[in-house]
Amino acid sequence: MQILKSIVKGYLYYELREYHSLALHIRDLEKKIKKIKSSFIRTAFKIRLRLMICVIYLYQNKPDKAREYSHLVIKENTFFELSIGRAYYQLAYSYMLDDYHMSSYFFKKAYIYFSKQKNDKSLEEHKINTTFTKLYWESIWEKQEPPNPHNLDEYNTYTSNYIFYHIKIGKPLVAEERLNQINLEKLSGWNLAFYWYYKGLVSNNTDFHYRSVDCFIQLDNYFHRRLPLDELRKLGESEAALNVLSKRGDTVEKYHKESLGK
After folding, report:
1. CATH code, domain carrying 126
2. Separation of alpha carbons 228 and 212, rounded Å
3. 149 φ/ψ angles, rounded to the nearest 5 degrees
4. Distance from first CA to last CA of the chain, Å, rounded?
5. pLDDT in tens, 189-233
6. Confidence grade of residue 41 (pLDDT, cut at 50, 70, 90)
7. Full domain range(s) for residue 132
8. Is there a single domain that holds both residue 115 and residue 188?
9. Pair 79, 202 in one domain
10. Residue 108 sits in the same domain as residue 201
11. Is there a contact between 193 and 221 (Cβ–Cβ < 8 Å)?
12. Is the backbone of residue 261 left (phi > 0), alpha (psi -120 to 50) or beta?
C-alpha cells in the first residue's frame, strides 16, 4: 500500500509539472518495487516507475535516456495497453523538437492505443501536442482551420496553440492582440514560460526570450527551454552567453551578473 501511495504521489508531481520533486521522490522507489512478491503487481509498478523516469529524463533534456525507458516499457509490457500508449506518446514528445517524421510516427502509434482505451484525457493531450508539433515544423498552413481557442477569456493550451498558429502563418498582429488580453497574474509557471516565448516570436525582442528561458529553468523544464534559446541564437545573441544559460540550473540573472563581470 505504501508503494501504491508513492506511485500516486509521483503522478501528482507529474500532473503539477514538478519534475525536480518527482525525481527526488522516486529515487528509492525501484528498490522497494523489486521486493514485491506478486510478479503481476511488481510489473505494473515497474512500468509506472519507468514512465515517470522517462518524463524526468525528458525534461532534463536527455531525450536519448527518455527514449531508452520508453522502449523498455513497450518491450516488457504485455498487460497494460494504456501504458504502451503513454510510452509511444513520450517517444513522440522526445522527438518533437528534433525530427518531425519520427515524432509524427510515434504520435500515430500512441493514438491507436489511446483510442482503443477510449481515454479522453490522453486523447486531448495528444491532440494539443500533435498540433503544437505540426505548428513548430510549419506543417499547418493558412488554408486549414486554426486551433480552437475555446474560451478567449482564459489562457490554456488551446489558446497557446491558437497564438502559435497565427505567428506561424504570418499574422503576428492577431497573435499579439490575443497576448495583450492575457492577465499574467493568472498564469501558471508553465503558461508564463510559453507566454514570454510567444511574445519574443511576435516582437523579435530578446528580453522576452530571456524571460522565457528563466521561467523554464524555474520549472526544471530544460527540454522546452530549447525553444527560446534557439530563437536567441537566430537573433544573433552571443553563443558564449547562451552556453552559460544552457548549463543546467543557471538562471538569466546569473548570466547577467557573469556577463557584466560582477
Report:
1. 1.25.40.10
2. 6
3. -80, -5
4. 52
5. 889 999 999 999 999 999 999 999 999 999 989 999 999 999 999
6. confident
7. 2-136
8. no
9. no
10. no
11. yes
12. left
State the cell numbers at 202: 511576435
* C-alpha cell recorded at residue 58: 525528458
User: What cell does 142 get?
Assistant: 493558412
Q: Does the pLDDT of residue 42 top 90, yes or no?
A: no
What are the helix (H) ranges across the chain?
A: 2-15, 19-25, 29-34, 39-59, 63-76, 81-94, 100-117, 120-136, 157-168, 172-180, 189-203, 206-218, 226-234, 239-245, 252-259
Distance in angstroms (rounded) separating the CA atoms of residues 243 and 63: 19
Length of the chain: 262
Q: With the C-alpha atoms ordered 137, 143, 125, 185, is the resulting torsion angle positive or negative?
A: positive
| Domains in the chain, number | 2
pLDDT in tens, 109-130: 999 999 998 888 889 889 989 9
200 burial type by CB count under 10 A (0-12 exposed, 13-18 middle, 19+ buried): buried
| Contacts (Cβ under 8 Å, ≥6 apart) of 36 | 3, 42, 45
C-alpha 52/C-alpha 208 separation (Å) is 31
- Which pTM value belongs to this model? 0.83
Amino acid at 220: D
Say if residue 98 is in the same domain as residue 197: no
